[in-house]
Amino acid sequence: MTPPNLTALRRGDASAWDEAFLWLWPAAFAVAQLKLQRLLPEDVEDVAIEALEELVDKVNEVQAVEELKALVASIAHNRAVSRLREAFAKKRGSGKTESLDAAQEEGGREVEPADEGPSLAGLDQRELAALLGELQQSLKPEHATVLSDFFLQGLSYGAIAAKHDIAIGSIGVYLKRGLESIRKATARQPELLKELEAYLR
Amino acid sequence: MNGLSEQRFLELAMKVINGQITEGERAELTTALGADAKLQTEFEALRKEVILAKEILPLVQATQSSAGQPPGFARERLRSKVKQTLGKAGPAARQSRNRSWLWFFVLAPVAGVFVLLLWPTAPSRTVVQLAMLDTVGETRGRTNNATAVLQKAWPDSATAVFSTPDQLDEWAKNWPSTRNATVVKIYYDKAAGELRVIGRQKARTFEKTFSIGTDLAGELKLVETYITEQTAP
């Protein structure tokens, strides 16, 4: 789907915004789902809608329409994190734990956020949007795919090579180049690097 | 690299960081790291990069997602937000077949229903108009069923049935005087599973879109409640 015209969006053109919401919804929803599906699945849709609403306020802040996707993802991410924080704060503060405890009992999971690594929530919206935007440009899809298969899916070198018809000897190179792209993008985010150092201590 | 090629080091480092290493491979890497401080530094750097990658990658992938559409009620809410924030919508709605999709944010055959109804509880008369747009050639039975449900909710209504969006648009533009009556148009888009309500009460306009599943009769109760709330004194 092609992005809509930014000038038309700034003008408040209804059909341009119709296109924009169709174009942006998958990203907003997928990001909200990523953060909330485990503990607050009923809030995923709301957060996605709120992220799009907030994006309307910020349409004049971007230079190119392509930036809107990274921005809406960033907004959805931070809103989702806020929802989680509110839910945990309520659990600790008011004793109203039924919904979160029910989730715990149902899944046998801890309801506190797991220690999942340095948090991106320390970045403000603009920083996170800039990071995502840069990675969209610099992280090649094939490198991202191999990184995901290896580090997130836990596939072996052999399995990845077979899956994508890549020489097994090249897997390491794909991983290294993908990691380099991420390193270069995150090098411009001192807050994130501080989080990383704190996490590693 | 103390006997380890760069490729071998990378492979062993990645495997140990990801928990996929064998004992023999671990021993090989440990020996190499112990003998070369630079290699140890490089290994630590890789470890940090992997930690960041695991955090960021899912978000990057989610940002690139392209599946799914906003639900009907969300489209209405977002449209209102655009109007409030950026002013009135552009003229595109009146130009082409897409005009009816601006009402519903989808390109699909539409069925809309407007009901004519007298609403005795309103301070002034309330006139509800009902129409259905059937572009996909629904069987006569199905169209009649939906009409019957609507007729039951608003027994004094007359149902206008249209076969093209242009006809519906023309009908939608045609508003009777609102000086002495509130006029409500209810539009049922069966294909999209949405029912839209637009009302005019003197200078005030109200509108809402309802998602309709299989229970049209049940959803119409919500529509009636909404109209009552909007037209109450």
Protein architecture, described:
The complex is a heterodimer of chains A (201) and B (233). Chain A is mostly helical and 201 residues long. In chain A, 71% of the residues lie in helices and 0% in strands. In chain A, helix 4 crosses helix 6 (125-138). Chain A is globular and about 50 Å long. Chain A starts with 5 loop residues before the first helix and ends with a helix. In chain A, 40% of the residues are buried. With 233 residues, chain B is of the alpha/beta class. The relative contact order of chain B is 0.11. Residues 89-98 and 115-123 of chain B have low confidence and may be disordered. Chain B starts with 5 loop residues before the first helix and ends with a helix. Chain B has eight helices and five strands, in the order αααααβαβαβββα. Classes of the chains: A mainly alpha (201), B alpha/beta (233).
Please render the helix and strand layout as text.
The complex is a heterodimer of chains A (201) and B (233).
Chain A: H1 6-11, H2 14-36, H3 44-57, H4 67-94, H5 98-107, H6 125-138, H7 141-152, H8 157-164, H9 171-186, H10 190-200
Helix pairs in contact in A: 2-3, 2-4, 3-4, 4-6, 6-9, 7-9
Chain B: H1 6-17, H2 23-35, H3 37-63, H4 72-86, H5 98-104, E1 125-133, H6 140-153, E2 159-162, H7 165-173, E3 181-189, E4 194-201, E5 204-211, H8 216-231
Parallel strand pairs in B: 1-2, 1-3
Antiparallel strand pairs in B: 3-4, 4-5
Helix pairs in contact in B: 1-2, 2-3, 6-8
